[in-house]
Amino acid sequence: MDFIVRKKKQPIGTILQDKNGLTFILKFDEMDTKAKDNILHNINNLSLEYEKNDLGLIVKTEKLSKKEIGSWFGQRTNISKKDVENNLDFDKILTDALNFSFQLNQRREDIYKALSSYATYNTICDEIDRSIDLLTNLTINKEYFLKEKAPIASFMPLNQLLYSFVCFALVPSYICKKVYVRYPNDSQDVFKELDKLLNLSSMPNIEIFYGGREDFLNITRNEIKAFIFTGTYENMKKVKRSYNKELYCFFGGAGQNPVIINLRSNIKEAVEACIELGTYNQGQDCAAPNALLVKRDCLTDFQEILINKLKEIHENCNSNPEKSTIIMPNTKDGYALNAAKLIYNNRKNIYYGGLIDASKNMIYPTVIVKDLSEGANYEELFCPIFFIQPYDSENELINYFKNTKYKESAMFLTVYGKLKEETIAILYDEKIHMPDSILVNDHLHNFEHGYKPYGGIGKHASGIYYKGIFTPQPILPQREIVRYL
């Protein structure tokens, strides 16, 4: 049962009542300072559990009545039954999520066989683990699973077929009346095998479409109120125009995720992170760094350790994938052509590798070393090319960050070492990065969770598109659905 709290007839919060007690969602930012102080005073005196997020101040209690909570606001406070249809049963949602996570864990080997022509064993295991992590931690996002929302469509990415399904289709289906799902043509045959294995098409509120984009647009055009799009900014705008109507777009794009290495004591840790990020799914991942920005006095050691590690994994580059395979053929033909152009254009700067087997679409690990002062690489690579850019001063880094190509698509910055406070201040002041998007001595794979917003604040990175206005921000589908629909 839901109840709405009004002060002087104005809604100021909602109380959710279930078998676990009361959850109070307060429009905290809309209250004056005195009211805020009074609320926090009551909460702290009673040692109540609370948190503040995009929905407001969330207070959970098993011991207070609705009347007692209402007394916090003084006179002229009214609590009445909220007229809400189709309330969602979170306990059932959580049970369904846990059951599916159990199925994923039990069928790891079968899932690997279904996806083995498309991703390495390590990548598939990681997808399973990330999917389970999201499904078993839905309580972190409990406040988003309140009321059923309108149908949406999900335009899926080319890679991470299982994890993207969980993030952009399954979890939204717990909220929306219907989620229409389409994968790119290049991945539909493989996803169909996963669909058959796990009976994904039979899941409630999910309709999986196999076919061309135009047919999908025609089928969903009059059915949906929003769509999730994962891909490039340019392709997102094409889809937005094709719908020819005002729909919310929750966009997750391609972005810049450089790694800075400027402290010698962190070099080994930095190399391990760069290899993990750069070889994950053959580098076909938005978290892969397009530039490794290495301080000059760290360069020799970094190059030596990196090359030795790449030599160790060379025997695990295999066009006939096995469980030990680290690099397998890329899944999109165009990536090999792009890699060949990049390698050719930087042929004088190749430090290691440079091999491509076009007949098998195999791109072998390659290291390019080009001074940052000679030109920055802002191109996303989508292959195991490690683009090292030595620099001498943080002024060079500041110029790198201020470039429009970087600012428009900046997502996460990883630092193995330390940046000057002045440099960090510039990143914040010019709205290039937020505090959560600068990772120190840790890398992106450890940060990313499906229950946390992901992305950047550049228009090519991620954001909300509606009525011709693009609002750059990190995206969490379940949050955006509740916030905008």
Please describe what this structure looks like.
There is one protein chain. The chain has 485 residues and is α/β, with parallel strands linked by helices. Helices cover 37% and strands 21% of the residues. Helix 10 links the parallel strand 12 and strand 13. The relative contact order is 0.10.
Radius of gyration using CA atoms only: 24 Å
Number of strands: 22
What percentage of residues falls in helices of 4 or more residues? 25-40%
From the spread of the alpha carbons, the general shape counts as globular
The helix tally amounts to 17
**What is the spatial order of strands in the main beta sheet?**
9-8-7-10-11-21-22
The chain-level structural class is alpha/beta
Separation of the first and last Cα atoms: 21 Å
Oligomer description = single chain
Could you tell me the strand content as a percent range?
15-25%
Mean pLDDT: 88
Model regions low in confidence, pLDDT < 50 over at least 5 residues: 1-5, 82-86
The largest sheet, given as strand count, sense and whether it forms a barrel, is:
7 strands, mixed
